[in-house]
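Hi all, posting the design record for the shared folder.

TITLE: backbone redesign
STEP: 1 of 1
STRUCTURE INPUT:
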């Protein structure tokens, strides 16, 4: 690059290529600021020398957008991706592969901003065009189908997500084989969709199949091997190394090995702070992971400090109504709740609930969850009428939206039964809990924790009623 600058000049095409190559190397090393400086210089020079709509200029714009994206600078990435997409549409046509790629990039930026409807529109258009141009079983088509399924998933549209995930999984099985990593990922995605629909047996079958193909011990060994190799090859502070460390920590977390998960999560968090900055999305995610581990260890004060910092930073960087911000607010509210600080939990719960109602709708699963959280806070404050109103609304909406037999619906029935019992409506509470327990036995099974809990509670209530009758 330096030689070309001297011999050919800064604005020579060959010099710009070498600058782009170096920027790409910086990106692969996770050196975003250095990559940004070069990418910006290449883009501006290309605009001047080649024109805004030249293919090389558009590539440089996409590269810079990618650098912004990796820094969590969604708005700047969006502006560039939008400009690239519109130019590609005009110059190459809507169904050109480069146009479709730019549309996918913009959809991904919308997705990270929590703008699900806009992401959905683009993902749907990309998927349909790729089906027509490339075929249903082309890797790019399958990728766009997975992206659209993910968008549906975040909107709580489980059935539509299921249809796409099922199609992707079956195609991967046929084209790549049952034990291919992409097939296993698609199986996990479908299992997650089944779980959200309360279809536990189907989810379990897929989970078992994935586990048997790639057992937990094997997953741990692979994650460990990947992490150690990346440490050696890329360095401890490389983004890919940090990702593999976070994956291994997640494996430990799911095995209940919280101390080992904590050690890795803390290391990822501290390195991310130094390497990426305190307000980078990946750093904030790592902080949330550590906070979650602390919560599971009952270390409420430490969890509170991290959750508070994550929440405030996300408010500033992403906005108050971003899904990630709302999630961090809920986590902090949960921490307050477990510390018995009910007024502070209430303030956050109300804000999360109202924002989700506006952004996602009253019947979105996340909205219903936030309503349940607030009802629980009211219940613990002794504000039974308010708790009852919310619990009743959650139950009725869950029945309509998720179905009468959905586990979340059954949970809402149990919650309302408890509220009625506390309010002195013993007969109504008993009838509702009996109905709930009958469905739990059928749907969840006799040995499920919720079934056992409801059974014990019902027996206790019935025994007290008999004692009173005597």
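Okay, here is what came back for every position:
SEQUENCE:
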């Amino acid at each position: 690059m330096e030689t070309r600058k001297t011999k050919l000049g800064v604005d020579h095409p060959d010099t710009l290529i070498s600058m782009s190559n170096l920027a790409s190397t910086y990106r692969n090393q996770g050196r975003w600021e250095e990559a940004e400086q070069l990418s910006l210089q290449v883009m501006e020079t290309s605009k001047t020398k080649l024109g805004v709509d030249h293919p090389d200029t558009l590539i440089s714009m996409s590269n810079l957008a990618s650098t912004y994206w990796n820094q969590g600078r969604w708005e700047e990435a969006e502006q560039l991706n939008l400009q690239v997409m519109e130019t590609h549409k005009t110059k190459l046509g809507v169904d050109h592969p480069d146009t479709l790629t730019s549309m996918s990039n913009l959809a991904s930026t919308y997705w990270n901003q929590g703008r699900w409807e806009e992401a959905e529109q683009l993902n749907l258009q990309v998927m349909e065009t790729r089906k027509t141009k490339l075929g249903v079983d082309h890797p790019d088509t399958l990728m766009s189908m997975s992206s659209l399924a993910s968008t549906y998933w975040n909107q709580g549209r489980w059935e539509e997500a299921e249809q796409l995930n099922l199609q992707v999984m079956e195609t991967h099985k046929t084209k790549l084989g049952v034990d291919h990593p992409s097939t296993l990922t698609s199986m996990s995605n479908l299992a997650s969709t089944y779980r959200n629909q309360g279809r536990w047996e189907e989810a379990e079958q897929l989970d078992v199949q994935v586990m048997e193909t790639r057992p937990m011990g094997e997953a741990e060994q692979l994650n460990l091997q990947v992490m150690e190799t990346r440490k050696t090859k890329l360095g401890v502070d490389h983004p890919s190394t940090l990702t593999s460390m976070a994956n291994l920590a997640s494996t430990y977390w799911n095995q209940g090995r919280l101390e080992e998960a904590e050690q890795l999560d803390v290391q990822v968090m501290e390195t991310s702070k130094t390497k990426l900055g305190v307000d980078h999305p990946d750093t904030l995610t790592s902080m949330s992971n550590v906070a979650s581990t602390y919560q599971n260890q009952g270390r409420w004060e430490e969890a509170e400090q991290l959750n508070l910092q994550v929440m405030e930073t996300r408010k500033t960087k992403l906005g108050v109504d971003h899904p990630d911000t709302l999630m961090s607010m809920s986590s902090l509210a949960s921490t307050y709740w477990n510390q018995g600080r009910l007024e502070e939990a209430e303030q956050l719960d109300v804000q999360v609930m109202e924002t989700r109602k506006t952004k996602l709708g009253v019947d979105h699963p996340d909205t219903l969850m936030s309503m349940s959280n607030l009802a629980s806070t009211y219940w613990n404050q002794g504000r039974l009428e308010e708790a009852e109103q919310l619990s009743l609304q959650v139950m009725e909406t869950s029945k309509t939206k998720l179905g009468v037999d959905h586990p979340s619906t059954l949970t809402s029935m149990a919650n309302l039964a408890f509220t009625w019992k506390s309010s002195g409506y013993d007969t109504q509470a008993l009838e509702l809990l009996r109905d709930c327990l009958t469905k739990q036995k059928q749907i969840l099974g006799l040995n499920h924790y919720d079934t056992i809990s409801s059974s014990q509670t019902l027996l206790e209530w019935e025994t007290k009623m008999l004692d009173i009758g005597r």
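COMMENT: The chain has a mean pLDDT of 88.
Let me know if anyone wants the other runs.
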